[in-house]
């Protein structure tokens, strides 16, 4: 079957009408079951929100606000319509921390559609190298693959030698994980005179996937596709064999707004991705992802008729994604507060040899012994990622308010 279902090729006008018709009930549900939305939308009549113009009159809920509200009302800041029990199978923590529920429904994150477009089919063995603890990435991939009838090897992160041994023994058909880690596995195998020739397809996410990475994997006989998904929303858009932008998921309503506002931009203009979810457990209305993108004109050559976006074009704020994990300016500030001998600090993110690296540059008069190691420990504890430390003289960092500086380059 070429398409996941018939919804992918329906008339665009019919799709738009169906999504807008679902809005009033979802907004009413959010007001009735999620206390935060009951307060935010107390003066809103759900029955009146039947157009994009009406939707644009509602406030945008940005990730930074979600983080602050969760600090006041654990675990979900009043935005979830579910609690502990049979309806909530798992709860995850992303850096911040931001907590996200996972409902008990099949393919909760709706990623099976993207996996299908990437060529995953029933009977495939999928080697899943996304994390299975704290963050939802491992579960997102596993539940999608299982919804298609695949079997999953829950590899998780790290342990390169053991992962390689398992792949040589089990001969998986497909890989799920970051593209950089797949390259590491392929290089390790080549160094040992071995071949991972059972791998024919890959679903990659969590970091940039430049053309050079795609071409290198294709040269190894692996067709790789990526998707745009978040722990809050699930699937937003996905690549297809056409490789011309990303096609929106059938169960999200997307807007592109001017960063820092809720105002939709002109078609084709770059702006912040704002998504309304129809998830009954976590009914996020006008959720600002903080990511930049733009709508592409026309229909995908693959035959799917939904709107396409250009993919990830950067961040609308300083929050950035490193090795599949979001890092927030507040986390950098928390690291600096732990060490009062420091002045200003700036987290610089680069990617030598296509591997993400974080370096915390700190102003200090004279660093005492052990400070670098203590800082590295604080970075790991607060961001769940490894980071390096570099000391500099007081006043040497630019006084421009920048806390996170992403200088990664992709060839």
From TrEMBL:
InterPro entries: AMP-bd_C_sf (IPR045851), AMP-dep_synth/lig_dom (IPR000873), ANL_N_sf (IPR042099)
Family matches, as Gene3D superfamilies: 3.30.300.30, N-terminal domain of ligase-like
Single Gene Ontology MF annotation: ligase activity
Keywords: Ligase
Coiled coil: none
AMP-dependent synthetase/ligase domain residues: 119-276
Protein name per Swiss-Prot or TrEMBL: Phenylacetate--CoA ligase
Species for this entry: Zoogloea ramigera
